[in-house]
Design brief:
Blueprint lengths: L1 H13 L20 E7 L2 E6 L2 E5 L6 E2 L2 E2 L16 E3 L10 H5 L6 E3 L16 E2 L18 E7 L2 E7 L4
Parallel strand pairs: 3-6, 6-7, 7-8
Antiparallel strand pairs: 1-2, 2-3, 4-5, 9-10
Length: 167
Amino acid sequence: MRHILALLPLVCGCLVAHEEPAVRGLPRDDRAAPLSAVWVGHATVLLRIGNQTVLTDPNLSGAILIVPRETPASLRPSELPRVDVVVISHMHMDHFDAPTVGKLGRDTAVVFPDGGQAYADEILQPRKAPPRPGQSCPDSLPLPRPGVRKIVKYGMIEASITRETEE
């Protein structure tokens, strides 16, 4: 009986009513605006700050383990623009989806919280690290273009991302 009760939340989770997102695809972006934000679903937000693109808590999968999302993400990984930086607030499955991060390309820098190092092997991008307290951004996370400095704040993470010169 206890085993059946343990499976009950999983079964109920699979019976969630499915709703389509109100908007599908990437809306038109006014490049003259200094900032744009698109809510993709749950905690995933696509930000454009100047010419840099930041994706927070990437999870574009259709399910968490086997529990389907009530409302699917409004974008597929193939619809995303080039992402410069991924910021992960914490390493729960609904905020960090390794398959989604893996589809973002090797040039994407990934910032995750201290304590997330146990998941670092699931992040395929070579530029990945947690910021240390008081540190702007790890040196291992240079931006792709020189002369760029951006502050990324998300949850308890704050990262200043700078690249001054050509490498």
